[in-house]
């Protein structure tokens, strides 16, 4: 099948589905200017994200980790949702049962208008106090290098899920329920190597859903999904949502 036939087939499946789940990763925000974790441009000051995004790294050197997050918050603050984010917001509007599960912490899906959204890795715009546990939204780009809790003065951390930490069980429960119940799952811009997020696509597949992948490159999922569309999310996703 040529790619235009694949896009038409994906659009047709999606148009007929009443229950849709979507799993997104860093690739959907790449065209908005947010660096991905893996691949070119995914590095920061010679540190790999896997070395920085851990509770141990934060405990050892909170200043280094906060500098990385201040840098990322500054970058993301200048980014706007792209055509792929906007296409998912349109899809939500017309779909009776819709769940968007994202691994991204950038907030661009919400900015695009998505509401039935599970940010399973948290948000870069949320902070949590290490001392009192209070969590709140903090969008200021003028924070001190080591920001303190408004309530108790304790050390804040970004309220994102780091390697070795568990996902919020309620968010994971809802993500699994959506994966099991959907008729179509779209998997967009994720390298499909970080669990449990990556496993959601196979949960959907085993429960009988049609799984459609959109990615620049092949992933561990590509051989197992029903359709694997190769290319930019900003080009392919609007075509799949609105029809070619
Ligand atoms: P990755 O950086 O691992 O992968 C990005 C994927 O997007 C790759 O498969 C690229 O081929 C693809 N891609 C890049 N640009 C694209 C474009 N314009 N259109 C379509 N696809 C494109 O990002 P994630 O899979 O999201 O976890 O990474 C998963 C998790 O690992 C992240 O949520 C984060 C990270 O460590 C935590 O922070 C817990």
Any idea how many domains? 2
Name the ligand types: 2'-O-acetyl adenosine-5-diphosphoribose
Shape: elongated
CATH 4th-level superfamily of the largest domain? TPP-binding domain
Helix content: 25-40%
**Order of the strands making up the biggest sheet:** 3-2-1-7-8-9
The level 1 CATH classification of the largest domain is Alpha Beta
Low-pLDDT runs: none
Question: What composes the largest sheet?
Answer: 6 strands, parallel
Give the percentage of residues in beta strands.
15-25%
Using only CA atoms, what is the Rg? 18 Å
Class inferred from helices and paired strands: alpha/beta
Quaternary organisation of the protein chains: single chain
- The SSE order reads HEHHHHHEHEEEEHEHEEH
Distance between the termini: 15 Å
Number of distinct helices: 10
The CATH architecture of the largest domain can be named as 3-Layer(aba) Sandwich
**Which fold name corresponds to the CATH topology of the largest domain?**
Rossmann fold
* DSSP strand count: 9
Mean pLDDT: 95
Summarize the structure.
By secondary structure, the protein is α/β, with parallel strands linked by helices.
Q: Notable features of this structure?
A:
single chain; 244 residues; alpha/beta; Rossmann fold; SIR2/SIRT2 'Small Domain'; binds 2'-O-acetyl adenosine-5-diphosphoribose
């Amino acid at each position: 099948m040529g790619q235009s036939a694949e896009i038409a087939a994906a659009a047709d499946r999606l148009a007929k589905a009443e229950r849709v789940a979507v799993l997104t990763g860093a690739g959907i925000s790449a065209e908005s200017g947010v660096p991905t974790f893996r691949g070119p441009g995914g590095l920061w000051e010679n540190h790999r994200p896997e070395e920085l995004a851990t509770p141990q790294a934060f405990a050892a050197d909170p200043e280094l980790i906060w500098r990385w997050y201040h840098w990322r918050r500054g970058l993301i603050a200048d980014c706007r949702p792209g055509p792929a984010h906007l296409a998912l917001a349109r899809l939500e509007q017309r779909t009776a049962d819709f769940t968007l599960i994202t691994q991204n912490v950038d907030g661009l899906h919400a900015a695009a208008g998505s509401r039935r959204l599970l940010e399973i890795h948290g948000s870069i715009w949320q902070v949590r106090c290490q001392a009192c546990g209070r969590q709140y939204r903090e969008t200021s780009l003028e924070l001190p290098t080591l920001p303190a809790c408004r309530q108790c003065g304790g050390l804040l951390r970004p309220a994102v899920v780091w390697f070795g930490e568990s996902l919020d069980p309620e968010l994971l429960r809802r993500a699994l329920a959506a994966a099991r119940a959907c008729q179509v799952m779209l998997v967009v811009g994720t390298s499909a190597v970080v669990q449990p997020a990556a496993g959601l696509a196979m949960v959907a597949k085993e429960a009988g859903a049609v799984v459609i992948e959109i990615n620049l490159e092949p992933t561990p999922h590509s051989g197992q999904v029903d359709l694997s569309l190769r290319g930019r999310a900003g080009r392919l996703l609007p075509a799949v949502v609105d029809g070619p």
